[in-house]
Specification:
This protein is of the alpha/beta class. The chain is built from seven helices and nine strands, in the order E-H-E-H-H-H-E-E-E-E-H-E-H-E-H-E.
Length: about 240
């Protein structure tokens, strides 16, 4: 098939770019490795983490704030299965929205891994090993990124996990160490801190959310420590 534009990756960069190209009258296709669209953000990033933040905040308020309003709850507990199911439902609604927008804007979608044969030819390798060839005048590479494992601390997806696995923990852990005080680590760390987990954050830089204004990091650290009991080890390096 021949296109004006082929976009490799359907995350926030890819799907928005593809939709805009189609709106401008360009024949557009998207190549996506996974079965659902939306990339990290919609599937295992921004959207599911916000869903868990919302649920965990409700629990934290019920445990710590309701009594001041004269609301007393007995035997308050977390139903992780239901919390995860609700998160998954939120994700499904959002990814289905991308599918709808692709159809509405007449964007062709191909499931598989995209690779270049030459600058204008994309080979889509599907899960069963079969291939399909696409040609395009222009190609947008929007493949996103994945977590990098520390060489001495391999990710086993059980005890040593990434943010993806942290979205599907079956039981609230007693303790959790978060390596990295960026937005992803702090989001998910605060989710479990609200649910009762003792969370420790190890950050190499002198401030959390180090790429942002220093005052923001200082204030956020103060709030997380005071309201959720999170502890921070700043200027620390993980060596083993």
């Amino acid at each position: 098939m021949q296109y004006d534009v082929v976009v490799i990756g359907s995350g926030p960069g890819g799907y928005v770019g593809a939709i805009r190209c189609a709106q401008l009258g360009l024949k557009t296709a998207v190549v996506e490795k996974y079965k659902t669209y939306g990339g990290t953000c919609l599937n295992v990033g921004c959207i599911p983490s916000k869903a868990l933040l919302d649920s965990s905040e409700h629990f934290h308020n019920a445990a710590h704030s309701f009594t001041t309003h004269g609301i007393n709850l007995k035997d308050l507990k977390v139903d992780m299965k239901q919390m995860i199911a609700r998160k998954d439902d939120v994700v499904s609604q959002n990814t289905a929205g991308i599918t709808y927008l692709f159809k509405k804007n007449k964007i062709d979608a191909y499931e598989g891994v995209g690779s270049f044969e030459d600058k204008n030819t994309i080979i889509v390798t599907k899960a069963d090993g079969s291939t399909e060839k696409l040609t395009a005048k222009n190609v947008i590479i929007a493949t996103g990124s994945k977590p990098t494992a520390l060489p001495f601390l391999p990710i086993d997806k059980k005890r040593i996990i990434t943010s993806t696995e942290a979205l599907n923990i079956k039981e609230v852990p007693k303790s959790m160490i978060v390596i990295g005080g960026g937005v992803i680590g702090l989001e998910l760390g605060s989710v479990y801190a609200r649910l009762g987990t003792k969370v420790s954050v190890i950050e190499y830089m002198p401030s959390i959310i180090a790429t942002m204004d220093g005052g923001l990091g200082k204030e956020l650290q103060r709030v997380l420590k005071k309201s959720l009991g999170m502890e921070f080890f700043m200027g620390h390096k993980v060596t083993g």
